[in-house]
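Rotation project, supervised by the postdoc (A.L.). Task for the rotation student: set up a whole-complex structure prediction and record inputs and outputs verbatim in this book. Inputs entered:
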Amino acid sequence: MAERTVTIASAHGLHARPASLFVQAVNAAGIPVELTKGEKTLNAASILGVISLGIEHGDQVTLRAEGDGADAVLDQLAALLTTDHDA
Amino acid sequence: MSGVLQTMVLQGVGIGRGLAVGPILRMPEPLAEPGDEPSALAPDAEKVRVAGALAATAADIRLRGERAGGSAKDVLDAQAFMAEDPTLRDDVNARIDSGKTGERAVFEAFAAFRDLLVSMGGYMGERATDLDDVSQRVVAHLRGVPAPGVPDPDHPFVLIARDLAPADTALLDLDKVLALITSDGGPTSHTAILAREKAIVAIVGAVGALDLPDGETVIVDASRGVVTVAPSDEERAAAEATIAARAAVADVPIGPGALADGTPVPLLANLGSVDKLAEAIEKGAEGVGLFRTEFLFLDSEHAPTIAEQQAKYTALLQGFAGKKVVVRALDAGADKPLSFLNDEPEENPALGLRGLRALRAHEVILRDQLTALANAAADTTAELWVMAPMVSTVEETRYFVALARELGIKTAGVMVEVPASALLADRILADADFASIGTNDLTQYTLAADRLLGSVASFQDPWHPAVLRLVGEVGRAGAALGKPVGICGEAAADPMLAVVLVGLGATSLSMSPAALADVRAELARFTRAQAQEFAELALSANSAVEARAAVLSAATPLTTQPTESE
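Outputs recorded:
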């Protein structure tokens, strides 16, 4: 199980466009990815799940995945989350 | 049906300054809620139907996104992901397993997520419209009926809706839709954002608009946020004359901005990159009043080097050879944080380490930027002015001006966005070479209303007498000390307010290039004495609405009969 904990960079958090970019990347990755904020963990391919976590700028979230290429996928997703897409 | 109502007015928040007259048409009512009777199909058959409808809806929304392009595409892509959402699909399938129809299961699953978003409030709540829209489209697909959408009559019309979904606004036929009116939605709703982007006449949050009968004639005046329902013949004729006059204004030859008595009021452009330079020059910008430098720093993990910055600044200054170019030092923080500048998350970033405060905490970034600017100025003939963002104190002013001089900047000023610096403008302008008032932030800070939050949008009005009084303080200090006072916020782009700002002592106005023609025409209608009289009227009002109404009514006889005022 690979794991990354990152701090959200987008000024408005993970809503609308940044959430859409993130979910698009998760879907393209082709392996199941879990997203955890606080106590809640859900399927990172779910835009509604991601939006409903209410992730704000500066929040810490954890990504988890298993299987072939999990580390590379998580590195790519972590880079996405630490870029400010609302700029 | 026209003319069945007494003349009445509805008040909302206008987007832009457009004016339109025409018959109204309402968006079709949403589809009726699917009934909760047991499904006649086996669960697996229902699931196949729903999977097909979700996929088809996602494909349809993506196609609309492709056709619309721009920021509409981003919003529509997000909606397509909602239709394909695995968590939602699991929820729908679970409801089908309990015996519900596909329609009912889709309706309930989307509604559950919608309620969750609404309960989160703020920006989340405004996304609920997106979800409702997707839900309706999927249900329509399952029923085999057309998706709800914008009506398409064979004549121009004013569209009325509760709030428009992105899928609707993106594909509006601008040859037919004269204006938009929504009963819900704030100035940060999709309707407002897209109306602004596409220059559609729009008023949002006009309570009561949904009760108007189709076909009734309305006058939509976005500059005042007023919808006049069933106008008198005189009102209608006046509005049509104004629309014609404004269209004619676009043909007025471009020249320097000036009042009717010849007092020059240079009209400058707000630019965020060198790409828009040609457009600004074409529209007659006499220079740049606000050049935002954030674009050089965003999307990068480190500040760009002096050489990289200098190349960009040189390109900008060469485009305005011999003219004034006011560059704002990096304004990061609050709504636009940078990883290398804003390291600590803040509870309340608008009141945190932003603007000059952030630069001062990372002085090397400020030093590099000022050095690159001074080098670029030395290579070109443009007149470079540099200003610091978000200055709150005299001490900060002295710090910035001293550093700028040390690094070779000839003209160094400050932005007045914080009420404290407006109130002490006489002291601040004693040290700074000029001031430029950022009316968006000044309004946000004066009225304690987040610029990005729809729920407090009614407070975000630069016509508020408290904001205008602060502008007047800066204008008075500038006049007493012989220092220029510019305006570089949205307020300068509102033609009537622009005249008031000049009356309060603004010596130049900077705005998005698209607004230059209207402001230039409005300034030319009034003398300095009239502008000062309007400013007094606005200052003595009790609210933004009263201030605007008082000035418009004083100016109206003059605007409709310009020959008498000359």
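Student's summary: Chain B has three domains: 8-25+154-247, 43-143, 260-565.
Supervisor addendum: Chain B touches chain A at residues 74-75, 77-78, 81-82, 85-88, 113, 116-117, 120, 123-124, 127, 131, 294, 298-299, 335-339, 345-346, 349, 452 (CB under 8 Å).
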